[in-house]
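Quick question about two entries, pasted in order.
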Amino acid sequence: MLNGLLAGLGGIVLSGRSNLAHPDAALGFELFVIGAVVMGGTSLMGGKGGVLGAVLGAVLMAEVQNGINLLDIPVNLMQPILGAVIVLAVFSDQLQKRRKVKRG
């Protein structure tokens, strides 16, 4: 475990010193990542979810992005559409929880 930690830190230092990494390289991926884990079944309240669900959620979010591109929807509408997908996923999750509580 220590070996992996030191290798990771060494990689970070090496990429920083050789100017290969930019601090804003993944700027704007926050919405995609949150959407992926929510679509994968991870609860925003915590305590529920897994890696496989997050990977499947990422695939689903990528499919939504590809669909937006294939339908020639303007790029500036991609973030609001992805946000709506996340809201629908959270709403669906809450609905399922309420039904489960009512059933007992």
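Here is the second entry:
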Amino acid sequence: MNAELPFVPHRRRVAAFLVTVVLVGVAGVVLGSTLASQTSTVQSAVELNPVVTAELENRAISSDIEIQAAVTAGSTVEVKPVVQGGADSLPLVTKSSLTAGSLVSNGELLLEIMGRPLVVLGGGSPLYRSLGIGDTGNDVEAFESALSRAGYGGFDIDSEFTEATLEAASELWEARGYDLPERASATSLGPSYTSSADSAGATPAPPATQAPPAVPSSQPYVSITEIVQIPADTATVASILPLAASIGSDTPVAALQVGANTVRGRASVTDADALPIGTSVLLRAAGKEAATSVVTEVSDFIAASTDANETAPQASGRDITASVPADWAEGLPIGTAVTLSIAGAEQLSLAVPVTAVRDAGAAPYLLVQSQETDAGPRRVDVALGRSSDGWVELLDSGGLSTGDVVLVTP
């Protein structure tokens, strides 16, 4: 007896197989599409973010230069008089009518010490000795020139001190309320005797008479101890002792500022190169309108201050000094903060695009493209200077030069 097997339709198996094939095909299409999309994305990214480079160039970097400066005093002369007097006198200031800030001119009285004047005389060769009739030299000519500029004349301005010079000096001293001092001058009356020689038959001469002793006399003169010489004809009193002040052996009784105030500030070496002597600059101070000035002095390089006691140690660089207009300086005490600036200063400097600088705020560096095609970029640390128009100056290029290629940040 034969057993019959149950009938299983083949159509179900075929259908299941076909479904499996379709699912596998769909998965392949999806996977292929995804991979193609990723590949396309990477290629697009490469195309959108290509490597951008730039070359180092010498460019004219133009920017405003500003230096923090201050009002500084002009040169000063300390007055240290020669105090004369014995044990029965006190070295005191007996007249003082000037104060700090007063102007004193050639021929004027500075002050009085122990009843004697200190007269200001300006310019010329150094006065180093007392002068009287008969003295000659360059100092005589300098004294006569100052005397003439003070308004006293009647003498020739030359190297000889004459009676006319003495008379004019006496007038100057008298105008200040004093007589010229006098010094002894021994004057011999000359011999008054006859020869004692005898001759035969001659009447004997009377005994020779001895010449009388020289009679001491005095003559006015100009004492160097009563003169204060300054380089110019005017000065500003920076300090002066008051009435009745005691004077020590090495005590300055006054300080005279003989040069005008200036503005001085420390500039970097780069900025100093753009500020040579004669450059026009602007001065600005609180409460003042800007004033035009001129650079009068540029110092040699000065190293940075290392004194820990300084409240505001200065960086290294060069000191820039500018003149101060007289009308602008009024009311500005020594030490007043001033901004010294010059607009649009230009100079050729090695520079790169600002976008090539990486980590500019902390430790700036550049990525320099290697000349070898299979080598990657190398890092070069740099120091930055001024910037303008998208370029920045390289104060320290790390050995790079014009033409070197750097990577630019996209």
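Reply: Helices lie at 10-48, 138-149, 163-175, 269-273, 326-329. The chain is about 20% helix and 30% strand. Hope that helps.
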